[in-house]
């Protein structure tokens, strides 16, 4: 079976920061104050329009997904899945769910991208965390061609922009050493808050931005790039996350669009040596 | 006849924005040994704002600012069809200080016939508690012959807040409670993402606290969103919005400001705000913006 290595979709599932609970440490609730926190309940997502020629749809997720779920997602009109491969809990660790989810996505015919939610407060440096992703996937027989780095939720990042820049740079440099394409999942506000608007990241780094008015169906923005404004070093985006915390095929995901012209058909992406390739699906 | 022009300006807006991060951000980097020239940081260039042309009777325009403005500039704002100014009366510098520029700004705005609201940009990392910071604002204005009726609290820029949502909630609650003790109407300047980041999406703030939310696509004219509340979605404890900041870091009357809209119930009410209120020869600010 011919498997083009193009199937190596960079799994950039930058788990949209839309789910605060996924990366954020839950606050200690002082019993003296009746503090209540509102939860966003995931409702069913609107359907993917059938005839949208210029954008393709994707989901991003940080939960395990079976092959039937991912087949359902494919049937629902999504062309790709962004899957989280690094979990920021504690000191940060390789997300062991990623391997099976990536395989399931691949066999469901979805383009597969990988994202990592790093742990900037960890004793492990940026490049060490990237190494964990690389090794974790490689050992499962998955070759990773690109990676998206989540830079969202300022409250999860240290206050020093310079330290954050160095941390991100450490990840990017290591990824480049492996020959990977790198993208950042962020927004202009996150980027300002976390890196003070860093502009010299390198113009080979792609952008996946997010803009929602809130969680759920009610908070969606249009599934196009019309609301993109240049920031940092980016003058054009590759992907946009336009909806957060919705149900698709009974799992909670965020929803994304990317320019369809850059899409490589999964069928073209076959690799002769029988390995799965993740990443590289999305281009600038 | 005393008209309550009390517009407690939501001062919170200006400092919350990433573009004003230099003025608001407390970045303690004493051991920063990184070669700064190796890192580029984006600067927003301030361009002139589009003119106010709306004839929509249901919204009025305002600006929010944290810089000194002359009487001529305030008159210019009025002529440019801004109905109100939101002035910062508390700055996050150091452990948090009363913003003395607010005194002349309020007097000039008053003379120009603008509605006046005040906002505070608190300092959550300070040794001063929330209520102590509110006291500095209240006493600062009162000692200068200015009576306030409402205050807006800036809750933006998660990078400037504590990491613990509960700590932040307690801090904000301290300010809100103190303000209510003074009989002030209280509003919060924030948005859904800030609120979620800073307070963990706190939903039990009392429902009499007003909301001033912001939404821009970026700084400057190209980053504006429509000057309407159409993009508002309920979050936290907020079911409705009173003010929206829709543009940031623009030049109006040679001032760098952010621009806002607020709902006015009756078109006549907007023009009537030019009659300012004095009580015992004191300027009264706040209360221009309500539900």
Automatic annotation (TrEMBL), chain A:
Signal peptide residues on this chain, from the entry's feature table: 1-23
UniProt keyword list: Signal
CDD domains, per database record: GH25_Lys1-like
GO biological process: cell wall macromolecule catabolic process; innate immune response; peptidoglycan catabolic process; signal transduction
Family: Belongs to the glycosyl hydrolase 25 family.
Organism, scientific name: Caenorhabditis nigoni
A single MF term (Gene Ontology): lysozyme activity
Record's protein name: Lysozyme
Keyword Signal: yes
UniProtKB/TrEMBL annotation, chain B:
KW Signal (keyword) present: yes
GO biological processes: cell wall macromolecule catabolic process; innate immune response; peptidoglycan catabolic process; signal transduction
Leader peptide range in chain numbering: 1-16
GO molecular function: lysozyme activity
Coiled-coil segments: none
SUPFAM superfamilies in the cross-refs: (Trans)glycosidases (SSF51445)
Keywords linked to the UniProt accession: Signal
Transmembrane segments: none
Similarity section: Belongs to the glycosyl hydrolase 25 family.
Protein's name in the database: Lysozyme
Species: Caenorhabditis nigoni
Gene: Cnig_chr_V.g19507
């Amino acid at each position: 079976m011919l498997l083009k290595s193009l199937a190596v979709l960079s799994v950039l599932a930058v788990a949209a920061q839309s789910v605060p609970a996924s990366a954020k440490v839950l606050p200690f609730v002082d019993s003296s104050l009746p503090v209540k926190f509102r939860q966003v309940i995931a409702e069913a997502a609107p359907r993917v329009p059938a005839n949208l020629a210029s954008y393709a749809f994707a989901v991003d997720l940080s939960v395990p997904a079976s092959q039937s779920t991912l087949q359902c997602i494919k049937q629902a009109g999504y062309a790709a899945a962004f899957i989280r491969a690094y979990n920021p809990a504690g000191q940060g660790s390789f997300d062991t769910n990623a391997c099976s989810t990536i395989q399931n996505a691949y066999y469901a015919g979805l383009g597969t991208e990988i994202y990592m939610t790093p742990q900037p407060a960890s004793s492990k440096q940026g490049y060490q965390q990237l190494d964990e992703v690389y090794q974790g996937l490689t050992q499962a027989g998955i070759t990773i061609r690109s990676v998206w780095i989540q830079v969202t939720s300022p409250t999860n990042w240290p206050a020093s922009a310079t330290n954050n820049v160095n941390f991100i740079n450490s990840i990017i440099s290591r990824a480049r050493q492996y020959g990977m394409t790198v993208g950042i999942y962020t927004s202009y506000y996150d980027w300002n808050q976390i890196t003070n608007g860093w502009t010299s990241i390198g113009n080979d780094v792609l952008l996946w931005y997010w803009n929602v008015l809130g969680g759920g169906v009610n908070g969606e923005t249009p599934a196009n790039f019309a609301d993109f404004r240049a920031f940092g070093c980016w003058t054009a985006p590759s992907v946009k996350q336009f909806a957060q915390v919705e149900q698709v095929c009974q799992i909670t995901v965020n929803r994304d669009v990317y320019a369809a012209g850059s899409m490589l058909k999964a069928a073209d992406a076959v690799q002769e040596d029988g390995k799965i390739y993740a990443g590289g699906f999305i281009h600038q | 006849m005393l008209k309550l022009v009390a517009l407690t300006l939501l001062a919170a807006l200006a400092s919350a924005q990433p573009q004003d991060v230099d003025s608001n951000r407390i970045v303690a980097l004493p051991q920063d040994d990184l070669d700064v020239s190796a890192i580029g940081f984006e600067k927003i260039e301030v361009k002139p704002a589009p003119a106010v042309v709306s004839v929509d009777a249901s919204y009025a325009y305002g600006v929010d600012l944290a810089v000194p403005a002359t009487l001529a500039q305030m008159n210019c704002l009025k002529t440019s069809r801004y109905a109100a100014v939101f002035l910062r009366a508390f700055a996050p510098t150091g452990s948090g200080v009363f913003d003395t520029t607010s005194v002349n700004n309020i007097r000039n705005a008053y003379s120009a016939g603008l509605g006046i609201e005040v906002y505070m940009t608190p300092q959550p990392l300070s040794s001063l508690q929330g209520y102590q910071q509110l006291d500095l604002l209240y006493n600062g204005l009162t000692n200068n012959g200015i009576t306030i009726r409402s205050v807006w609290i800036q809750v933006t820029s998660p990078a400037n807040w504590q990491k613990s949502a509960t700590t932040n909630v307690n801090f904000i609650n301290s300010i809100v409670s103190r303000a209510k003790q003074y009989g002030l109407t209280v509003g919060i300047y924030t948005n859904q993402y800030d609120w979620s980041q800073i307070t963990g999406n706190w939903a039990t703030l009392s429902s009499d606290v007003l909301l001033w939310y912001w939404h821009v696509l970026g700084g400057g004219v190209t980053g504006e969103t429509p000057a309407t509340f159409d993009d508002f979605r309920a979050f936290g404890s907020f079911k409705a919005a009173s003010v929206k900041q829709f543009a940031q870091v623009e030049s109006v009357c040679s001032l760098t400001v952010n621009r806002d809209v607020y709902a006015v119930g009756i078109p006549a009410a907007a023009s009537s705000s030019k009659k300012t209120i004095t009580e015992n020869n004191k300027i009264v600010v706040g209360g221009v913006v309500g539900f």
